[in-house]
Amino acid sequence: MSRRPLVAGNWKMNGSRDSNANLIHDVIFEVRKYPDVDVLVCPPAVYLDAVGRQLEGSAVQLGAQDLSEQPKTGAYTGEIHGVMLRDVGCTHVIVGHSERRSLYGEGNDKVAQKFATAQECGLIPILCVGETLEQRENGQTESVLAEQLGTVVTACGAQAFKQAVIAYEPVWAIGTGLTATPQQAQDAHAFLRAQLAASDAKIAGLVRILYGGSVKGENAESLFAGPDVDGGLIGGASLKAGEFMSICAAAAAQARSK
Ligand code: PGA
Fold this sequence. Notes:
single chain, 8 strands, 45% helix
């Protein structure tokens, strides 16, 4: 099953008007070399509108890092609704990133609500799942992944993954410089795909599963080698155009060989 690779940049809480404009300028220019890769950037919410305008007419897509789980707009101070994200040009939104789970108390149920709201607004959710180091060392990786994915499958149905992306991000590899080995990544991806296949084999074969956690130009090609690895969710390395583009090059090279 050949799936089009996706490389998504998660800028987290970084950037400024000037630095974003420079970064996007370079990304738009370079991305034309990789027509077989879908490329997405996820700036902080306050910059989405400006970055979206700069991306107009380019192949680079726009995503948000989070959204409100509230089904309707209204009196929710500080929150941002999916319809607003759509309004400024977002096609995707990250849900359940481990930083949101651990620092802002988002549990599986809230993540599932966000996933559902995103889809109701016509956004493609990128559902992040991943185990902590302690969970891995205790042999709980699969049970953690099963629960994180399973909560969304139960709430929204396996069919919902027709318009969704999964990102496997081992928490211990995020921003630490540590990465999963290519085999650890492949094993987790295969596990997630099999879990979805138990509900709907066709959807499982179509859904893209990204790897995230200290992906760089130098390790991307080996991390993307696994047959179930369909690209990456890139944090730190997405803030430098050259590094981000070498990751896109790696995704393109792997897509050719799969
Ligand atoms: P990192 O972050 O590439 O900086 O490790 C990945 C992520 O959190 O999505």
